[in-house]
Design a protein that fits this description.
84 residues; three-stranded antiparallel β-sheet; mainly beta; 39% strand; globular; 7 strands
Length: 84
């Protein structure tokens, strides 16, 4: 099982269910649109905001994302896969 944890969430657009889930950084055009949606466009700290596209239909604007693979009961925090 894979765990995704978003920190400092500023804006989201999600579905209630996904057949499969992919995560990628948004392109500059979508990033600008999402920052405007979240009301942070033009703020000095907006450059720190990360925008991730989920399965090309959803997004999360946040300050950080941590992805872990949870496979071993002896390591409940899981194996770190990605950290922004």
């Amino acid at each position: 099982m894979t765990s995704l944890r978003f920190f400092g969430v500023l804006g989201v657009k999600l579905k209630s269910e996904y057949d499969s889930l992919t995560v990628a950084e948004a392109d500059q055009s979508l990033r600008s649109e999402v920052l405007s949606f979240a009301g942070v466009a033009g703020r000095s700290w907006a450059r720190k905001v990360r925008v991730f596209v989920l399965s090309e239909e959803s997004f999360v604007a946040c300050l950080s994302l941590v992805v872990r693979e949870l496979v071993d009961a002896d390591a409940p925090e899981g194996k770190l896969i990605y950290k922004s």
